[in-house]
Amino acid sequence: MNVINYKNTYDEKIILVYKGVLSFDLVSNIIETLEKKLDEIDEDRQLKKKFHNVATECIQNLHYHIGDIEYIKNINEEVLSDQLKKTVIILATVRSKYYNLLTVNYISNDSLEKIKKKIDLINSLDEKSLRILYKQSMDQDFSEKGTAGLGYIDIARKTNQKLRYQFDELNPDVFLFTFQIRILKNNINTVNL
């Protein structure tokens, strides 16, 4: 699914941008910074809170699921460090019609199919079916990362949008995973892209 669309960027305002290693301490700092930046925007408080909650879920998910790659080779065929494997990009913006969050991180080929299958299933469901899937997931055992795969379901339910994603191959074993969410303003159900 194509995520990155540069059309109509003239009305986009960057709220937060981060590129680097994502540690536990940084997760808290990024979420706190995002909240402060959102407070500076003259918009509906409920809308900003909703975006903050969903963005928090995305950033926490990003932290929980990075670093599962044994190796990543760069262009010069050198193995990248553990820190570089945990490097992420987080970009939060506001546009005239919606709030936008984009995250980018490395994932293994093994993780790709699992993530794709999960997101495609979620994107195929209506609101009622998402609610049922959420309840079923709550009844499952939680993983060692503390979730039962609830993150994507929760994000889809809160945004009322299809989850956008893209995988870009770096080598046969490693991909860049780009994930994007939007919170629409004024209860608009469609967005011109």
Overall description:
Strands 1-2-3-5-4 form a five-stranded antiparallel β-sheet. It is built from six helices and five strands. α1 runs antiparallel to α2, α2 runs antiparallel to α6 and α5 packs antiparallel against α6. The longest helix has 20 residues. It has 193 residues and is an alpha+beta fold. β4 and β5 form a beta hairpin.
Q: For the terminal residues, how far apart are their CA atoms?
A: 14 Å
Radius of gyration: 17 Å
User: Main beta sheet: strand number and arrangement?
Assistant: 5 strands, antiparallel
Total beta strand runs: 5
Mean pLDDT: 81
Helix content: 40-55%
Pick out the low-confidence regions. Answer: 188-193
Looking at the structure, what is the overall shape?
Answer: globular
Strand order of the largest sheet: 1-2-3-5-4
